[in-house]
Amino acid sequence: MTDTPEPDTSAAAAKPAAKPAPKHPKPKSTRRRSREVALQGLYEWLVSGTDAKLIDAHMREQEDFAKCDAAHFDALLHGCISEAVDIDALLSKHVDRKTPMLSPIEHGVLMIGVYELKHCIAIPYKVAINEAVELAKSFGGTDGHKYVNGVLDKLAKQLRPDEIARVRQAV
């Protein structure tokens, strides 16, 4: 007779290996939430032409508004609406159709991206582009995020050439 160990048939041996705990999504930053709410407001403005003050009041009534960076929301919503003509002029050089023909979601996302590239210098250009891409992934069409990324990448070269040069030199 050989001394081979008998297989362990106990209940403990029959259990599959423990699965790692599911990852909880990282909570959204207040700025990301402000971008999302501003996008909803811009969508309403682009689709209906409702007055900015009414849209602002409507957005502030939303359940999660308290989790937003209110100052950033104000800057995005009111800045994008008041500078819409200038923003669309910048976009027109890099989009494949007239801006009114863009999906209102992609148009709103691009407006937010342009506004941040132009006015929110404390936000690195890569972050501004990435945040716009994430908005497009969450709210836009299937490949809308790729379109947003391409357009904003071209605009970043125009709006933030010094920052891009510094980043490329550091690499």
Feature tags:
171 residues, mainly alpha, 0% strand
Explain this structure to me?
With 171 residues, this protein is an all-alpha fold. It contains nine helices and no strands. It has helices at 11-14, 30-48, 52-60, 70-82, 84-92, 104-119, 125-139, 144-159, 161-170.
Cα distance spanning the termini: 68 Å
Q: Can you tell me the residue ranges where pLDDT is under 50 for at least 5 consecutive residues?
A: none
Report the sheet-strand fraction: under 5%
Helix content: 55-70%
Task: Give the overall shape.
Answer: globular
Number of strands: 0
Rg from C-alpha positions?
23 Å
Structural class: mainly alpha
**Average of per-residue pLDDT values:** 90
Instruction: Count the DSSP helices.
Output: 9
Order of helices and strands: HHHHHHHHH
Largest sheet: none
Brief digest:
65% of the residues lie in helices and 0% in strands. The protein has 171 residues and is an all-alpha fold.
Secondary-structure map:
Blueprint: H1 11-14, H2 30-48, H3 52-60, H4 70-82, H5 84-92, H6 104-119, H7 125-139, H8 144-159, H9 161-170
Helix pairs in contact: 2-3, 2-4, 2-6, 4-6, 5-6, 6-7, 6-8, 7-8
